[in-house]
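I hope you will forgive my troubling you with a question about protein structure. The full record is reproduced below for your convenience:

——
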Amino acid sequence: MTTRKNALVTGANKGIGRETVRRLAALDYKVWLGARDAERGETAAQALHDEGLDVEWLALDVASDDSVAAAAKTVAARISSLEVLVNNAGIAPGYVEALGPDGRYQRPPSQEDIADMKATYDVNVFGPVRVTRAFLPLLLASPAARIVMVSSYLGSLARASGSQSPNVMGYGSSKTALNAVTLAFARELAPHGIMVNAAAPGYTATDLNAHRGGRTVQQAAEIIVRLTTLEPGGPTGGYFDENGPLPW
């Protein structure tokens, strides 16, 4: 067992997740790079390791109870505590196909596919619940663990009520639900010194949106890393972007 600070980032073989791994490892964390695809996960972890960073791939499919349980067992055999958990893995099936020539989302909620919505919730909502529950013993073993749920501006009901916000029912509502999950865990874990917050990285150029986003992964990772390194007495049960608190 080791006393070094440890972090886990889910869905981290590319995009915002991979950049978050890089940033945490640069802060001298041992980082477990969670990814369900072995080839992509090992390749990403090796590339970061070649940069001199302590990064290791962890087989982790957040939509699978068995995979999450096995991942937790693997990590628990290697470390005594987990200081940071970033629930980053997320999907938006059908989103890219619904983008018009101008890049705007054009599919009405009444035409969204229910099967896509179920898959979205399984990863974006139940995934963070599965992972947080499975790794909770390791998080509780740390004197000041931090959990970050990677949400979205589309998760804000206040923003969704405005006419300028894209009307993306499946993905958006999954992030609204994730915000509620954030609050629930924050209330439970506050007495244990664990801070749980939701981060909105902004519309970032990733595979999720066919790289239509206007922000870089470096910009997106800023608020995530900031929330993972909060000092004792900082906020918990909040929803933030890099400029501060967001309206629920």
The beta strands are 6-9, 30-35, 55-59, 84-87, 146-150, 195-199, 239-241, 244-245. The radius of gyration is 17 Å.
